[in-house]
Amino acid sequence: MILHFLVNYVFVSSWTNDITLTIDPLVTLQASTTYSLSLSGESQDNNSFSASLSFITESSQIADTTAPAQVTGFAVDEEGDWTADYNTTSITFKWNTVDGADAYIVWASDNQYNPNLITVGVFEHMDYVTDQSGTVVLPSQFDYYDDDGIQTPFTSGTELTFQIVAVNDAGEGTYSASVTVGDETSPVVTSFNQSGTADNPDSTSTQSFTVDLSANEYLSGADPTFGFVESGGDTNYVLPNSSVSLDWDSDMMGGTFTVVVPAGKDGSGDEFFITNLKDASENASSDTVRVTLD
Fold first, then answer.
1. pLDDT at residue 44 greater than cutoff 70
2. 58 vs 188: CA distance, rounded Å
3. Considering the entire predicted model, what is its pTM?
4. Which CATH number fits domain 189-292: 2.60.40, 1.10.10, 2.40.50, 3.30.70?
5. What is the pLDDT of residue 233?
6. Where are the domains of the chain?
7. d(Cα 287, Cα 188) in Å, to the nearest integer?
8. CATH 3.40.50.720 fits 75-182, yes or no
9. What's the confidence (pLDDT) of residue 54?
């Protein structure tokens, strides 16, 4: 096993004495094992540098002759009816402790850009309890869109698979059963506003009004269910669904409904509603959003 350490520091332009670097790892280094040390930084004149070296730990009497047993009971430890959302970046897990463990390492991978396991948490063993919990904070590489200014690990159907393993001087135990987490949180409509009027007094030509929709997350692009309900105005007329077109915003967090009102028709006072709005992971909203047309 090769572990990689990254060290960043600022240095003066020259020195005459050797520099001693002390490594204090979160878990015990294994005897007779090769480790890789990477160093990078920037000089006072803003020139960047990097270097690497490898070292082998000395042979010694290993305190633990047997790696720990497999961790059991690994599960999400969040309150209530918790579900991950598209921008969830921290998750608390729980597990049963294992005799002989020094620490626990939580690994994660996803079904998009990170198919290989990545360390996302290291927790010291507590020998005075039978179960532990720890919060994992996802590193930046778990981000579906890396240019939108927010970390979105779970959007567009991305699922993360987590495992935990106990370690001691003798090495790693067997990896636990995996826990898969995906976005199961429905989108929320944050605004639903009309511009223009649904009353067209012109007897010779059509006119249009719009209803703007905004949501709290990326949407799927699948049209929601929508329609009109008679609620006032001309009680003998209700706008047909065929009069509506929907254009999604470029950021896929909203869109504009354009409604064409036939000549001489009055749809004001009626309700325009939408439901079954889906996010980019195909979670559908259960709420119906309504606006009374002017």
1. no
2. 58
3. 0.75
4. 2.60.40
5. 84
6. 4-56, 75-182, 189-292
7. 9
8. no
9. 74
